[in-house]
Amino acid sequence: MKYTLLTVRTLAIATMILAISSCDKNNNLSLFSAADDAQLGAQVAAQIADDPTNYPLLPETGNEEAYEYLQAIVDDIMATGEVQYKTEFAWEVYIIDQDVLNAFCTPGGYIYVYTGLIKYLDNVDDLAGVMGHEMAHADLRHSSRQLQTQYGVGTLLSLLLGDNPNQLAEIAAGLANGISSLQFSQKHEKESDARSVEYLAGTDYACNGAASFFEKLLEDGQGSTSGLEAFLSTHPSSESRVEDINEKADDLNCDKTLSNDNTNGMSYQAFQALFD
Ligand SMILES: [Zn+2]
């Protein structure tokens, strides 16, 4: 019996190693499942909640209007049916009260938006574009692919085999520390840009919202303020990126006109004023 179990285990490991070597070629994640993403994301979210120095989260109590506004954007994107892991991932949104021009999303769909970004943008469409882009990183499981590169096959194997019960917590802690500066490949950035357009195509928001955000960044000059540097270091902006997003919008023939300013029952300016 013991021999059989060992054989099964050895076979399982061999299969996993094969799965990993093939995933390097086709960029598939047959080893780390979507359920693993969800579990990892929940741990990262817990770590972030436990680290108010680095992540001063705005409490939901007392900030209901702000949270409802952001959740409405998430709900609008969910309603399109374009999000692949709609039910598997959490898709919860959190506000970080810091003058940082950034947003990010953990594996498993925990979305974080900095007040600095909210204040910087001009309209809800741009914000929806950025949020769609970040959500796409989670939905396309880019962070898991990054983890695979960062931690290597051995660590992920021992994680899945349960050899080190603390491993998941350690990885979650590492990810919580570095997630706001996690850098994706150009390819993943392009994929997320395109998905953002697909998400927004089925909503009232201008489907190229992400493009107008990058345009604004380009107009303001790259790295001219400290706030811009944070976002641009993780999201290299370029004319070609704006063009690609607009081309995707043309391909889909989706609506690029700005939505009604009261899409979520509040003007964007009123929403921004909540953080003054
Ligand atoms: Zn990105």
Automatic annotation (TrEMBL):
<keyword id="KW-0645">Protease</keyword>
<comment type="similarity">
    <text>Belongs to the peptidase M48 family.</text>
</comment>
<keyword id="KW-0378">Hydrolase</keyword>
<dbReference type="InterPro" id="IPR051156">
    <property type="entry name" value="Mito/Outer_Membr_Metalloprot"/>
</dbReference>
<keyword id="KW-0732">Signal</keyword>
<feature type="domain" description="Peptidase M48">
    <location>
        <begin position="68"/>
        <end position="247"/>
    </location>
</feature>
<keyword id="KW-0862">Zinc</keyword>
<dbReference type="GO" id="GO:0008237">
    <property type="term" value="F:metallopeptidase activity"/>
</dbReference>
<dbReference type="InterPro" id="IPR001915">
    <property type="entry name" value="Peptidase_M48"/>
</dbReference>
<keyword id="KW-0479">Metal-binding</keyword>
<keyword id="KW-0482">Metalloprotease</keyword>
<protein>
    <submittedName>
        <fullName>M48 family metalloprotease</fullName>
        <ecNumber>3.4.24.-</ecNumber>
    </submittedName>
</protein>
<dbReference type="Pfam" id="PF01435">
    <property type="entry name" value="Peptidase_M48"/>
</dbReference>
<feature type="signal peptide">
    <location>
        <begin position="1"/>
        <end position="19"/>
    </location>
</feature>
